[in-house]
Structures are given as C-alpha cells and as structure tokens.
Amino acid sequence: MEPPSTDRPAPGLLTTRADRGAAVGPITRAVADPPADGVVDDVHGPLPAGVGTRVQSEAVPPATNYLCAFDSPLGPMTLAIAAGEGLPDGGAVVGVWFDGQRHDRAGLADDARPVAAGDPDEPAALAAARAWLEHYFTGDDPGPTPDLAPGGTDFQRRVWDRLRTIPRGQTTTYGHIAADLAAATGRPTSARAVGSAVGRNPVSILVPCHRVLGADGSLTGYAGGPERKAALLRLEGVMIA
C-alpha cells in the first residue's frame, strides 16, 4: 500500500489548496528515549523517501538544553534547543510548544537554560527555528525545517517522521498513517497507537501533527487545542467549516 497521495486529498478528507512543495529535512537523533507510555505497537523497516536517517535508541552523551520564549499570533510559545556531542553544529530543535499544552516539557532536563533571542549564547538552531516560525506565521511556506532531534521511542519517532511527509495544505487521518506503517512493515499498527504518538509530538508545527484528523474529519487530538489546530490549518489554506 502506498502512502496517501501528495497530489490530492485522500477520499473523505478536507478540501485543500495545491501542495506548495513542503520540504522535509532529516531528524538527526534523539536526546532521550522515554518509555512507550503504554504504546505496544512498534514499527521497523525503511523510512519514507526524503525523511533521512531514522533516530536511533542508542545511549547518547548528555546535551545542554536551551529554552526561549516566542510570541506567536496564536499565543506564547516556548522553543527548546539541545546542543552537545553528537548533535549538529549549532544544536537541534527538541521542543516547540504553546505554553500550557499537554506534554510540553516531556523528556527535557530540569536544568534547561533560559536564553533570550539575540543573546550571545543563543544556539544557531534557535535563531533558525525563530526565523522559520516567523515566516510560517506570515502564511507563506517557510521551506526546510531546522535540524530536529526530538526524544521519543522508536515507534513515536517513526510516526513523527511520517508526519513530516504530509505536505503543507493537505491532511490525512490517524487511520491512514497506521495503515501506511502496517503496509511498510507487515505488522499491524492501530490508529489508537498512532494517535498516542501524535499526541506526544514534542515539536509542534515543525513536525505538523495538526495536519492529522479523525476518521470523520474532526479536529481531534491536538495538544495545543482544537481552536489552534483549526487556525493552523486555515493558515495553510485548508478549507474547514
């Protein structure tokens, strides 16, 4: 079974405008590998084309985490960057969330360092993430994402990699993602397990979990809330009621 078409919406989904060429860069590696949180499904096999190297579960040296406030049109956000051995020069994005949303700091060290935009200590990945989001919120396609290194289980990271193949301006469902993963591996994968992994996505917007809908097209399961999910989809040109 092939993944949902990137040329047109899957049957029964929301009407969208034409794909404007969402670029997908690699997730480099995880900074942490937390428990599966009850998700028993696991997936192995090749990644979708264009996603890059799969994040591994191997032990890694401790990284330094940086936190920076970001004012978005949909409310205050926090960006989290990790820097250290084994990560790209300039660090990598490990978290982007709306303040107060569920699972906002899952997997981050308690000693994360606050840093202001433009500080001498600001990692390059932080400046890149801020610029990407500023461009995104103008309604334009901001292009390739900065380097990402979210911490999660092997299954969670594979689902997040799938999310990054959903083009801007299009949507899919939890069930479609589950079917894609099952077809790629020959192992059953439930929509519920996919939904759990999507709900634990630590990098909002850059890993576009807001593009995943319920089977009936409902705006369900977004940690930032259904109103923000609707606003993000409208910003990308998705036609919703």
From TrEMBL:
GO terms for biological process: DNA alkylation repair; methylation. Pfam families: DNA_binding_1. GO terms for molecular function: methylated-DNA-[protein]-cysteine S-methyltransferase activity. GO terms for cellular component: cytoplasm. Its main location: cytoplasm. It is an enzyme of class 2 (transferase). Residues 154-238 form the Methylated-DNA-[protein]-cysteine S-methyltransferase DNA binding domain. Its EC number is 2.1.1.63. It catalyses: a 4-O-methyl-thymidine in DNA + L-cysteinyl-[protein] = a thymidine in DNA + S-methyl-L-cysteinyl-[protein]; a 6-O-methyl-2'-deoxyguanosine in DNA + L-cysteinyl-[protein] = S-methyl-L-cysteinyl-[protein] + a 2'-deoxyguanosine in DNA. PROSITE patterns: MGMT. The active site is at C209. Residues 1-22 are annotated as: Disordered. Belongs to the MGMT family. This is Methylated-DNA--protein-cysteine methyltransferase. It is found in: Cytoplasm. This enzyme catalyzes only one turnover and therefore is not strictly catalytic. According to one definition, an enzyme is a biocatalyst that acts repeatedly and over many reaction cycles. It comes from Actinomyces glycerinitolerans. Involved in the cellular defense against the biological effects of O6-methylguanine (O6-MeG) and O4-methylthymine (O4-MeT) in DNA. Repairs the methylated nucleobase in DNA by stoichiometrically transferring the methyl group to a cysteine residue in the enzyme. This is a suicide reaction: the enzyme is irreversibly inactivated.
